[in-house]
């Protein structure tokens, strides 16, 4: 691959993402300055595993540093469901939250809705498909839907995906990797929170209902049956968590 060659990266469900050399390019919108400020705060706080901002290219796309690694969602089960990975993900999320917390009260334009109490700037999609693993390190990508919200909003969605509480949890075996409730407790402890398992489950249900509505709207807009299927799963999982 040449330094100027564009390579389409996997993901980018909402907008296409390409790699050019050691950078990633993606279209921007009114939310970009806020997201870039969040990433700059992460850089200032020396949070590892977060992209650095390198401006806007001639096509109006943001330029972010390329983070190497394998997408966690695609990793073998013994890696995807590793308790060590769960702890590292929780600690990274805490560092991102702490770095961006001062921005939560600023009058910035975000792409996703604000949720109260706005304690921090939430990633809003902090999950294995947006986490990269390389050797012993973990990194996070796709911050474009970040917005202010409560810490638990992000923690609960991470728990939904990595505890896991989701219907689609390939090859998860509680005998090998621990029960979802045990893993939620470990996630919360690694983050440094004091929420109960019941509180995490309850917030996950609220989060999934909003995600289902968003995904249903996207499915109607694009005609994609896969998105409609995802929305139905979120509804089922939310109902199960509330039961």
From TrEMBL:
Superkingdom: Bacteria
Pfam families in the record: APH
Sequence ranges assigned to domain Aminoglycoside phosphotransferase in this UniProt record: 112-168
Bilayer-spanning residue ranges: none
Name of the protein: Aminoglycoside phosphotransferase domain-containing protein
């Amino acid at each position: 691959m040449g330094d100027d060659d564009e390579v389409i990266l996997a993901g980018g469900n909402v907008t296409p993402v390409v790699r050019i050399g050691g950078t990633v390019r993606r279209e921007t919108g009114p939310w970009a300055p806020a997201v870039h400020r969040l990433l700059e705060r992460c850089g200032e706080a020396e949070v590892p595993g977060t992209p650095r901002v390198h401006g806007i290219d001639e096509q109006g796309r943001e330029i972010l540093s390329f983070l190497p690694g394998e997408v966690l969602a695609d990793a073998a089960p013994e890696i995807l469901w590793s308790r060590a990975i769960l702890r590292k993900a929780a600690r990274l999320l805490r560092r991102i939250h702490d770095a961006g917390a001062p921005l939560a009260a600023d009058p910035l334009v975000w792409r996703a809705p604000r949720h109260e109490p706005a304690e921090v700037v939430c990633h809003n999609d902090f999950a294995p498909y947006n986490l990269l693993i390389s050797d012993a390190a973990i990194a996070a990508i796709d911050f474009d839907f970040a917005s202010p919200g409560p810490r638990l909003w992000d923690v609960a969605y991470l728990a939904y995906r990595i505890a896991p509480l989701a219907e689609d949890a390939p090859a998860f075996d509680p005998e090998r990797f621990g029960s979802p409730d045990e893993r939620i407790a470990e996630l919360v402890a690694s983050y440094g929170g004091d929420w109960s398992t019941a509180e995490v489950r309850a917030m996950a249900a609220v989060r999934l209902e909003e995600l289902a509505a968003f995904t249903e709207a996207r499915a109607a807009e694009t005609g994609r049956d896969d998105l409609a299927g995802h929305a139905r799963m979120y509804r089922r999982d939310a109902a199960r968590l509330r039961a």
